[in-house]
Amino acid sequence: MSRPSSPDFAGIRQQALTELSAAADPAALQAWRNRYLGRQGETQKLLDGLKSLPPAERPAAGKAANDLRKALEEAWAEKGGGETTGTAAAPGELDPTLPGKPYPSGAVHVLTQTLDRITDIFHRLGFALADGPEIETEHHNFDALNTHADHPARDEQDTFYLNLPPGPHGRWLLRTQTSTVQIRVLENRKPPIKIIAPGRCYRRDEVDATHGIFFHQVEGLCVGEGIGLPHLKGVLEYFFRELMGEGTKVRLRPHYFPFTEPSFEVDFSIPGKTFRGKEWLEIAGCGLVHPNVLRGVGVDPEKYTGYAFGLGVERIAMVRHGIPDLRLFYENDVRFLKQFAAHGAV
Ligand code: DAH
Hints:
Elements: H1 9-22, H2 26-37, H3 42-49, H4 58-78, H5 81-84, H6 110-124, E1 128-129, E2 135-137, H7 138-141, H8 153-156, E3 172-174, H9 180-188, E4 193-202, E5 214-224, H10 229-244, E6 249-255, E7 260-269, E8 281-289, H11 291-296, E9 305-312, H12 313-321, H13 334-337
Parallel strand pairs: 1-4
Antiparallel strand pairs: 2-3, 4-5, 5-9, 6-7, 7-8, 8-9
Helix pairs in contact: 1-4, 3-4, 6-12
Bound molecules: 3,4-dihydroxyphenylalanine (DAH).
3,4-dihydroxyphenylalanine binds at residues 177, 179, 219, 257, 260, 285-287, 308-310.
């Protein structure tokens, strides 16, 4: 009777590796895997056969069988088989069960998100969207807004003039404020009017953490019969509560703007929050539309009255997100922009 002896592990290993390197197509690879690593494959047979060896030989043979199996599994993985082991396809075939390749996607810029949020709230209050050009006339940017040529407010809003021959409405410039859209709308439509006008503005400013040569505003204008301060205050209170959360308070502080009378600066406060140690933060300008503005566009100020307001979009985004420097918005550093990528649009 022939005594069972330890199998030729080295020979089997050699042969398996030679066959594996010769396997050139998915079918051959799969056949190799079944033959050596399958449930009834060679390595399994070796492990099953350990029982019939003399007890003294079993530990060494067991170790050799396990080593062999491991070596063949590694060779299989190296060949690329590892990728599809346990999945739905043979090596080299498309495997729909594998995770997809990540596709880089963009996101809405934090300023656009802020604008979307602002316009969304005003839509709910019945404001329509209006638009006006960024290249404006002196007339629309200043004169029609009750800011005549030697008015000191023109200095504060120094801007970029275009090297073009002046038209019937004076020189061409980059608008310093979205208040121009008040005039554009009033020229073209009869009251009642209730619009917001978001857009970009320009000024000749020294650039620092809170000033740039361009920025964004949202203008609001409501003109109709019997429109007054309570409407303005109500709209601002609703708006800032929606934007900043329940408990947000708004106060109007007397101020001066050429195109409103009376005029106010708008401050808001949020319960439990301070801004550089102060409870109130200035955030907008507003007032009742000056009769001269209405008269200038042919609207009878005895019959119609209205309110207007202007918000700084960067300022609001800075407060909402704790952004310390305005320049971050425009540098397009993705490390900054990505922080807001998850917020989506509105
Ligand atoms: N246009 C003003 C500015 O840029 C902001 C402003 C103040 C707009 C009062 C208004 C307003 O409509 O009523 O400083």
